[in-house]
Amino acid sequence: MGASRPDNSQASDGPEGGALPVFVDVHCHCLPGLDDGPADRAEALALCRALVADHIGTVVATPHQLGRYDGLYDAGKIREAVGDLNRMMAEAQIPLNVLPGADVRVDERIADLIASDQILTVGDVGRYLLLELPHEIFIDPALLLAQLVANGVGVVITHPERHRFLAQRPQYVEQWLPHKPSLQITAGSFLGGFGQLSEQAAWAFLNAPMPVLVATDAHAMAGRAPRMTDAYRALAQQLGRGVADILCVENPKRLLAGHDLLMLDAGRS
Question: Minimal CB count within 10 Å: which of 6, 12, 173, 194?
Answer without folding.
Answer: 12
